[in-house]
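Q&A log
Question type: sequence-to-structure
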Amino acid sequence: MRKTLVVAVVFASAVGLAAAGSPFNHASKRGLNASSQLSKESKQGAALISFESMYGVDGPFVGDGFPIRDIPGDELPWTLRSARGRLDTDGHLTIKVQGLVFTDDEEVPPEMRGINDEDEFRAAVSCWTEEGDSITTKNVITSGFPATRTGNATIRTTIDLPNPCVAPIVMILAGSEEKWFAVTGFESEEGEDDEGGD
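Response status: OK
Response body:
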């Protein structure tokens, strides 16, 4: 009788450990997954610039009268619905732009208004950097990424940043020429109304 009791206790303990082993194993897996995720994140560079707004080329920026970091604006004005992106210190660049198209303005030919006529968009990252005892502009331009007629595109790539990279600016360029359509920045509707007031 005592042997039977001992066997029963040992059996129950074994079953209990097996049952308890399941959540313990899951916790271990979660710990490994968390460690793996942390390891991945630690391999990424620190955020250098993160944005949720861009400014479409317009007004005095149209054409080559006022280039930004040696890159002129397109010869016609552009507008965009939304843009967001991130660049880190390892050169990982991601941009998602939507609705980047010609404006509905008189200077734009009627057949081009509200559309994008480029098959691809490129990104340019412009930095000030050191060159000996002086400062120079360094523009790094990506390869082209497919763009829809409605102006949607996703750019995801890794670039070689100059070292140091100071005061970075991100632009969306035409796929076919060195002209920018959008640049990190914004213009509020209130600002436009104020200009038109009085």
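Response note: Residues 1-42 have pLDDT under 50 and may be disordered.
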